[in-house]
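Input chain follows. Return structure tokens only.
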Amino acid sequence: MTLNQMRYFYEVCRLQNTTKASQILHVSQPTVSIAIRELEEETKLNLFHRQGKKIVITQDGYKLFVKISNILSQIKELDDEISIMSNRRNHVRLAIPIQIGTIFLPRILEEFRNKYPNINFDIIETGGIGSLTLLENDKIDIAITNYQAEHKNKFDYFKLFTSECCFCTHKDNPLAKRESLTANDIAYEKIVMLDSSFFIHKLINDFYNMNKITPRVIYYSPHLHSIKNLVKNKVASTFLLNQVIFPEDNIVPIRIENPIFIDSGIVIKKGKQLYSDELLLIEYLKKISVKLPKGA
């Protein structure tokens, strides 16, 4: 019996469904079905009752499920211990959304690394929602990201700063001369947006819904540079944090009446033990956040 067979069998038993199990395992449904069939042939046991598309675990199947659950649990504990041992010494796994990365990455990779050259980083640029998923699955140690209260049961959060979310358009757009805009002012503007892996995506959709407006979104992207390029080329406008707009962009950030703010900070998985290298990074981030320009 292989480790893959055990994992496939465990998920099929847990979910009582080979299609859902294949999605969790990131393999095709036939791959799971073949593995289960081969396991039954190998063990000479009838592990499931099949009723059309529905499968029900047998008594023998349940006994095997209990045994395999214990084995997989022990393997996970061993993997976690090995991971901790390999990552506890000068190694930080960090996730950071693209917009916040604009603020922090240059400082982390220059000033912080010059001060602590022995600390190595694995850095993933992803949206805030993706960052929390990585944290929950122990794929990273720390996320610097936006945050929402509904996740408080799973994570600990240390606020760093508050950003203002602005309507951003090309400097030649007539709206660029305005100091602030209402929802009605931008109701008919074509919009490009960061995709649903970013908290700003939900925030802006809530803004439109609250004002009973259907946004004219023509494109979603996970890439900040793609969004900015479309605005630079006068294809559409967008919504971004004000501090990611630079003079050379030819993009003007304009405040929304009843401003939209986003809190950003350090997020760690609740109950996680922090090592000395992680604590050094957290203290550094807190320190430089105090010195950020107003509005960042």
